[in-house]
Structure formats: C-alpha cells, structure tokens
C-alpha cells in the first residue's frame, strides 16, 4: 500500500497550477515617445491610466516603455503592426500608415478642442478607426490629444495673415505644414526639431509653430518674443493595439482594454489642457507677448491657409479624399 503525503501533494498541485498560470499570463507592451510623467506628459498620463485599469480588472500585465525607449513613432507603429509591441500611442505617424487620418491636420478645422472631441468621440471617429483598422491591422482604442499648435516669432505681433508676410517659419518636413505657411504668406523652412533652438537663436528662422506646452517646456519662449494663439492645427494622439492580439483576448478582457483605451485618451487630453493653461500663464510671466485672435481674424487665417492645403491633400489622398468632406460634415454637425 502506498502512503501519500497529503501536504506534499497539495503544495505540489499548487506549484503546478502556479506555473501554469504564469505561463498563460499575457503581457501587453505599451510604448510611446513622451516622458514617463503622469502629471506633465499627456502620453505618459494616458499610459499609466491604461496600465492601472487593465491590471486592476484583468489578469493581464502592462509593461510601459516611455521616452522613445523602443524607437521613434514610425518605428513604434511598425512594431505594433508586426505584434512585437502590442499597444502604442502616436500622433503624426498615424497618417503615414493610414493617410485618411491626415485630414485631422487641415488647418483651422476645429474652433476649439471641445469641437475636436465631439468629432473624434462620435460617428466620424468610429468610422475613421474602422477604416484605419482595415488598412493597418491596428485597432484604435481611444483618441488623445498631443496639443493645439500656435505660431511664435521674434519680429512682430501676428494678428492677421498679413503680419506673417516675409517671416521665415520653421515647420515639420510635412507638405501639409509647408503649404499652410505658404498660404498664410510666410516662408516655410523645414528643420529637424533638434536643430530648432539653434535656428531660432541664430536667426536662420524668425519663428516656428508648436503647442504651448512644447514651447514652454523646451524654453522656446526664451528665444521668441511673440505668441499668437491661433490654434491652426489640433494634433490628435491615437492609442492603438495590434488587432490580432486584441482578438486573442477573452470578450471580458477586450471590454476592459477598450474602456481603458477610451479613458486613457481622455486622461491624456486633460493633462494636455492643463499644461497648455499653465504654459500660457508661464510664458507671459517670463515676458512673452501673447495675442488671441478674434473670430473675424481667425476666419482670415482659415481663408488663406485652407485652399493650398486642401488642393495638396486631395491630390495626395486620391480615393481617400472623401474623408475631407466627411470631416467637414462632422465638424458642422458638432457645432450645431
């Protein structure tokens, strides 16, 4: 007769179950290019919110890779597509893999972030997410905000497009931004971001454009005298997940991950709005002159900037040019 040590048997079973659970546990790698700071970084805040919700309500674990530790945005979307990184949060890189997303950068489309939120959280945002999913295999879990872009310069206060005539502005090496500045009467000069402080300090360019938080956090206000809060582009963050990975999750876990993505996007928006409000006060206290155009003045900016951009964008999008009209209709509905 064989004697069984009940204590050993129980512990052995527990150990086997424990190993099995560890093997089956899934880890989500979440990468972005911003600092790992939930109080001052929109992507950092969104990532931490996503992690807390998912880990609190599922058996999934979330490992964060902030500050471009896994690469720049184009590299991150490549990793998300091939599944080596399951979740990424990116902004400009989205239009490179899903061109229709580029319509969100049409200048002076949104009169405020609130209008942008209504559009992105409504039918248009859902349809765009489905379109980009079909094109890329990446599911949009939520929309965040990487900032509303404004013009700075060190020559004169800009109240209308006429004030931009002859001024050289650093822009991203993106045709849409080049055409926008040309339409406004300025001289666009594509320069890498790392070279911007030197270009401003030495007079290679007279001004540039960026969100207020970026202007303040990078001490651009120390190199520029004037800031015009024209809000020419509302820059969207996309929280993306590899859809094959998403489909491998249980329905219960999918629901949590989807909800976490939406809330994370809202968290990112809130942090971005806070840093913007904080930044406007800070740059003024540091001596920068800040001007907010009137509705009539903003209409002048829109009338000058949009035609060149729309002509280029319609040609660049080809069959996807219909998204220009879809966005226009969505904005009109949001403003009713």
Automatic annotation (TrEMBL):
InterPro entries: DctP_fam (IPR018389), TRAP_DctP (IPR004682), TRAP_DctP_sf (IPR038404). It comes from the Bacteria. GO terms for biological process: transmembrane transport. Keywords: Signal, Transport. Gene3D superfamilies: Bacterial extracellular solute-binding protein, family 7. One of its GO terms (cellular component) is outer membrane-bounded periplasmic space. Residues 1-25 form the signal peptide. Belongs to the bacterial solute-binding protein 7 family. This is DctP family TRAP transporter solute-binding subunit. It comes from Billgrantia tianxiuensis.
């Amino acid at each position: 007769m064989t004697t069984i040590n009940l204590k050993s048997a129980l512990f052995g079973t527990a150990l086997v179950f424990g190993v099995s659970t560890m093997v089956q546990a899934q880890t989500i790698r979440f990468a972005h290019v911003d600092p790992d700071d939930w109080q001052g970084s929109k992507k950092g805040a969104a990532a931490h919110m996503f992690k807390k919700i998912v880990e609190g309500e599922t058996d999934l674990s979330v490992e964060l890779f902030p500050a471009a530790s896994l690469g720049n945005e184009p590299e991150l979307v490549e990793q998300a597509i091939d599944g080596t990184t399951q979740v990424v949060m990116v902004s400009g890189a989205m239009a490179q893999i899903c061109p229709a997303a580029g319509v969100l950068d049409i200048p002076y489309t949104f009169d405020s972030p609130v209008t942008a939120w209504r559009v992105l959280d409504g039918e248009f945002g859902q349809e765009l997410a489905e379109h980009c999913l079909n094109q890329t295999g990446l599911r949009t879990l939520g929309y965040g905000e990487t900032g509303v872009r404004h013009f700075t310069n060190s020559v004169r206060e800009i109240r209308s497009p006429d004030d931009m005539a002859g001024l050289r502005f650093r822009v991203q090496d993106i045709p849409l931004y080049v055409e926008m500045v040309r339409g406004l009467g300025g001289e666009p000069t594509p320069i890498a971001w790392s070279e911007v402080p030197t270009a401003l300090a030495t007079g290679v360019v007279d001004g540039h454009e960026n969100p207020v938080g970026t202007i303040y956090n990078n001490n651009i206000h120390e190199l520029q005298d004037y800031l015009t809060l024209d809000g020419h582009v509302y820059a969207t963050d996309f929280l993306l997940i590899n859809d094959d990975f998403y489909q491998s999750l249980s329905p219960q876990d999918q629901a949590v991950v989807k909800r976490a993505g939406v809330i994370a996007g809202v968290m990112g928006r809130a942090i971005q709005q806070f840093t913007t409000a904080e930044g406007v006060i800070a740059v003024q206290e540091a001596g920068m002159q800040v001007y907010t155009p009137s509705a009539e003045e903003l209409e002048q900016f829109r009338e000058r900037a949009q035609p060149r951009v729309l002509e280029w964008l319609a040609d660049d999008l080809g069959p996807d040019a219909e998204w220009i009209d879809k966005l226009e209709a969505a904005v009109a509905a949001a403003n009713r």
